Amino acid sequence: MIAFEHVGKRYGGRFEALAGLDFHVRRGEMVFLTGHSGAGKSSLLRLIMRLERPSRGRVMVAGHDIDRLHDSQVPFYRRQIGVVFQDHQLLLDRSVFANVALPLEIQGVEPREAARRVRAALEKVGLLHREKALPIELSSGEQQRIGIARAVVNKPALLLADEPTGNLDPQLSADIMRLFEDFNRIGTTVMVASHDLALIARLRHRVLRLRDGRLIADEHAHEVAS
Ligand SMILES: Nc1ncnc2c1ncn2[C@@H]1O[C@H](COP(=O)(O)OP(=O)(O)OP(=O)(O)O)[C@@H](O)[C@H]1O
Fold first, then answer.
1. I need a surface site. Which of 80, 104, 114, 192 has the fewest CB within 10 A?
2. How many domains does the chain have?
């Protein structure tokens, strides 16, 4: 699903945020990405989303070198990736329903079909009963669930999350990670950047560890546990 081949990223021509990255993520895998602040986790995710382009090497997603996508193909490409941010980035003056519907609205999905898909996504994150609420009326854990519903409403093959539990207490963080596991179980490839080492260790998935822009460990569940 994802292949990094000797990938490097420089910002402003001098600073190397990522260097010599080589790894593969198989379709259907769930992977954590960890490392200190500034290690390059967000940069790596931004390369996959093609919000940034590599200074070196190739980023392959679903068999395509995404650097070779024509500008006109990029919006279509991005729509196939669900993205969850730490601060969920919900529109505060729109209902829960409208927030989750937004990606479908942008694509021009027919309203009845969109409503069906929005409700299915809300049901998966356990918040169908809050569809009329405004984001401000929800707890931070619930807001993050809405962010996840919006990310999956398109049924993306790939789900990326950048510190999705950054602001949540341990119990809510575990609940959110369990949701990612649910989507992974139904076939979605999931990559979650997180610095919550205790939680990551408990969940027993593969862990890619970055330090100063380099991959210093690629640990599979059995190695993490031992
Ligand atoms: N657009 C940019 N221009 C210049 N430097 C950048 C840019 N984006 C990131 N960097 C730098 O690249 C390095 C990696 O940053 P990145 O945000 O990818 O790390 P991170 O592991 O996600 O950190 P954090 O957990 O703090 O978000 C940092 O030193 C950062 O300052």
1. 80
2. 1
Q: What is the pLDDT of residues 54-72, one digit of tens each?
A: 999 999 999 999 999 999 9
- Is 144 within 8 Å of 171 (Cβ atoms)? no
Question: Is the CB of residue 76 below 6 angstroms from any atom belonging to ligand 1?
Answer: no
Residue 143 lies in a domain: yes
Closest to 161 measured CA to CA, from 26, 58, 31: 31
Is 10 part of any domain?
A: no
Q: What is the mean pLDDT of the chain?
A: 93
> How sure is the predictor about 224, in pLDDT bands with cuts at 50, 70 and 90?
low
> What is the ipTM score, two decimals?
0.89
| Residue 162 resides in a domain | no
- 46 located within any domain: no
**Strands of 15-25's sheet, edge to edge?**
15-25, 2-11, 56-61, 64-65
Residue range(s) defining the domain that contains residue 141: 92-154
- DSSP-based three-state secondary structure for 86: coil
